[in-house]
Amino acid sequence: MDRTRKKKKPPFLLRLLKKVFQLVLVVLGLAVYMTRIEPSWVQVTELDIAGQVEGSLTAVAFGDTHIGMGKDVEELEELVAQINDLQPDAVFFLGDLFDNYGAYTGDVEGCLSILADIQAEYKYAVRGNHDVGGGAEFLFPDWMESAGFVLLENACAELPGGIRLIGAANATYYTPNVEEMTGEGFDLLLSHEPDVADSISNVELQLSGHSHGGQVYLPFLVDRILPRGAQTYFRGYYEKDDGGTIYVNRGVGMSMLPVRFFSRPEITFLTIHGE
Predict the structure, then answer these.
(1) 177/165 Cα distance (integer angstroms)
(2) How sure is the predictor about 39, in pLDDT bands with cuts at 50, 70 and 90?
(3) Residue 239: what are its φ and ψ, rounded to 5°?
(4) What is the Cα–Cα distance from 22 to 108, expressed in whole angstroms?
(5) Cα distance between residue 66 and residue 82, in whole Å
(6) Which domains are seen in the chain, by residue range?
(7) Among 17-21, 82-86, 201-205, 267-271, where is mean pLDDT lowest?
(8) From CA 185, how far away is CA 198, in angstroms rounded?
(9) CA-to-CA distance for 143 and 46, rounded, in angstroms?
(10) Cβ(159)–Cβ(174) under 8 Å?
(11) Is 245 helix (H, G, I), strand (E, B) or coil?
């Protein structure tokens, strides 16, 4: 005679509480990851570009620090140390220093002093849309100068190896006007908003930010919440029909909410060399 008994299921309420507890743990884990882990997990993306240049140039591109939105002096110090460890020839800041300067109550001079500690022979910057709003418009040029950066707004500069560096004015508030600056050789364009690429041709490489790579990135989504100026190009590497390349950096900070998900903060380490 089979005396085995079926195992009795726990009461429904107990099973429900167990499921709720598991769900709470998952939600708390995601919240910790999105607010504490991923925002501090900076990725260094290496980009190798060949073109009509003599020798080679190494550079770090970073931007969208959005100081005051989950990032402040301590995080900026860590970022600068990471940049200096790469020992680049040049450093390019892609804009959006403070998230909202008018509401920021931290140490502005301390932040600028830390940026001034970046060790590179060439330091250039362009303005982001947050470098205009929040009362930053007339202060940003002085900030960049005190940090040792040359601000390029519809202006260009020469880098070693015959590289022409072009900085576009912020496309959200101003009008980029750099088409006539392009020419023979290797043109490197810095533009905070990546979609400027559709109106500018004959540029070998464009570096941009602005989108944060989506900031909260779910690969299966078709309709994404992206800022104006980053609707077409918003994340990573793109090739244009004219042979040029666009790289959209995900930035290191956050805006709207201090969270990141599947869009790690990023600095780009690029090497430009002869073909």
Answers:
(1) 14
(2) very high
(3) -115, 135
(4) 43
(5) 18
(6) 32-274 (3.60.21.10)
(7) 17-21
(8) 20
(9) 28
(10) no
(11) strand
